[in-house]
Specification:
The chain has 480 residues and is an alpha+beta fold. Helices cover 34% and strands 26% of the residues. The strands form 4 sheets. Strands 1, 2, 6, 7, 10, 11, 12, 13, 14 and 15 form a 10-stranded mixed beta sheet that branches. A 3-stranded antiparallel beta sheet has the order 5-4-16, with no helix packed on it. Helix 10 crosses helix 13. The protein is globular.
Length: 480
């Protein structure tokens, strides 16, 4: 009997974001711990000493709600902290102050662009369709960070050292539903989430410093079908492999590699053992970046293993509608909205608008430069597109050159472009058709071919546009 297998990854994400408040979550200790001498930024509250009482950081709570609102979450008008009980060396109290039953926010979503790959059977060619996919957000809640374990060798012995400087730093946990079926979707979501958090200014989300940590959970849906499709007697069975949580990943590249390894490993494991998901067979693994493999750490606990109960030293929190409305009013213009406005107001391509809006600082600098141009004499020839080209090509250090200075620099070095955009594009395509080898050379990585094509376009249009502008247009058309 023939048996066909269909494998579909099911992936959920927990993202931990360290907030950049001045003080920690439940005490007055300085929250800027990175690079400091170990155990120099802690107090009786951080260390869980007897009699020490936690006092919540209002700014951190507000920022957590702000993140939830941006992710289209509902705000729990009544919320409280709970104790999450477990024993680990980096947890001084033997419990973590976190949230479970009544998180600050819940039930949101974030839209991402997902590429759907399809194959046309008649031509055997592959195509991609861009689809908007809504990723559901289960919750955005507030907790405290733990200390940090360092594995070292002291006097010839392998030891684990604990630094409690990070203990108690405000930590927001963003939990998605298991809505990802592709590693590219995961990376797209994480990059967009990273961008939004940086736009809000509540965290640097610096993964090298550990202020954004990624923890995907993955298993596989394996469908087996026997017999021929459409025939009576054909049957389909569905199996789910055991859940695996991958802990503390600190880059988009590594999260993709870890998930791809787990997909392959779980599929091979199922083929050998036919082990399926049951209550209690979750596992936690780490990711070895050098070997690009996951390594078993421990069995994963269920919620009841943590024995959650309300934190007795912190009263419940209540939020009025006016408080929520006030927080909503603090939300800045977010990347998607800014990109759409730049395309509409400044005539930019989607490609250019995406690059400029990737960083809030760069987007604001670009807009200041465009506005500065409008008050500068003899600057009619400097279009928003030309300014975008200068910034994208990094012809000026925006940290050192003011918008007004950039306008003057462009004014001095840019001649009027008398050739319309349509005519320039037509000339470029004509050059491409006449020089297919140069086009092929560039696409295979030979950068010298680019300047050859630029020179041919200059000759074709008889110098009616700046070389820098032609270079930008040629690159765009080559990359499409």
């Amino acid at each position: 009997m023939n048996e066909n297998l269909k494998i579909e990854p099911i992936i959920g994400l927990e993202v931990h974001v360290g907030l950049k408040t001045n003080s920690k979550m439940f005490c007055g200790c300085d929250a800027f711990y990175f690079g400091q001498e170990p155990n120099t930024h802690c107090c009786p509250v951080c260390l869980g000493l007897p009699g020490a009482l936690p006092v919540p950081n209002k700014k951190a709570i507000d920022w957590c709600i702000l993140i939830g609102l941006v992710l289209n979450c509902q705000v729990n008008k009544e919320s409280y902290f709970e104790r999450k009980n477990y024993f680990y060396p980096d947890l001084a109290k033997g419990y973590q102050i976190s949230q479970y039953n009544k998180p600050l926010t819940y039930g949101g979503w974030l839209e991402i662009k997902s590429e759907i790959r399809s194959t046309k059977s008649e031509t055997n060619s592959k195509s991609q369709i861009t689809n908007i996919k809504k990723i559901r957000i289960n919750r955005v809640h507030m907790e405290e960070d733990t200390g940090k374990l360092t594995h070292a060798e002291v006097n010839g012995e392998k030891v684990s050292l604990v630094d409690f400087n990070r203990s108690g730093v405000p930590l927001v946990e963003i939990v998605s539903e298991p809505d990802f079926n592709d590693t590219e979707e995961v990376v797209t979501y994480l990059k967009k989430l990273h961008q939004i958090i940086r736009y809000l200014g509540v965290s640097d989300a610096d993964m090298e410093k550990g202020t954004m940590r990624l923890e995907p959970t993955i298993n596989l849906k394996i469908s087996t079908s026997s017999g021929k499709t459409g025939l009576r007697g054909a049957s389909t069975k569905v199996f789910y492999t055991p859940l695996v949580e991958i802990k503390n990943i600190n880059s988009f590249r590594f999260v993709k590699q870890a998930l791809e390894y787990e997909i392959k490993r779980q599929a091979e494991e199922f083929a050998k053992t036919k082990t399926v998901k049951t209550t209690g067979n979750k596992t936690t693994v780490g990711f070895n970046e050098e070997k690009r493999i996951t390594v078993l750490q421990r069995s994963k606990e269920e919620a009841n293993d943590y024995r959650y109960f309300p934190e007795p030293d912190i009263p419940p929190m209540e939020f009025s509608q006016s408080q929520i409305s006030n927080l909503k009013s603090q939300i800045c213009e977010l990347p998607d909205t800014k990109i759409a406005r730049f395309i509409k107001d400044y005539g930019l391509t989607e490609y250019d608008a995406n690059i400029l809006c990737d960083s809030k600082d760069v987007a604001e600098y670009y807009e200041k430069t465009v506005n500065s141009k409008q008050t500068t004499d003899n600057s009619k020839q400097i279009t928003p597109k030309i300014i975008a080209n200068w910034i994208i090509n990094k012809k000026a250090d925006i940290s050192k050159v003011s918008p007004e200075e950039l306008v003057k620099t462009i004014q001095n070095k840019t001649r009027t472009v008398s050739l319309p955009d349509e005519e320039l594009e037509k000339a470029i395509k004509k050059v491409f058709e006449a020089n297919p080898k140069a086009v092929s050379d560039y696409k295979s990585g030979k950068e010298n071919a680019l300047m050859f094509l630029v020179g041919q376009v200059m000759r074709e249009i008889k110098g009616q546009a700046e070389a820098d502008i032609i270079k930008m247009r040629v690159q765009k058309l080559l990359n499409i």
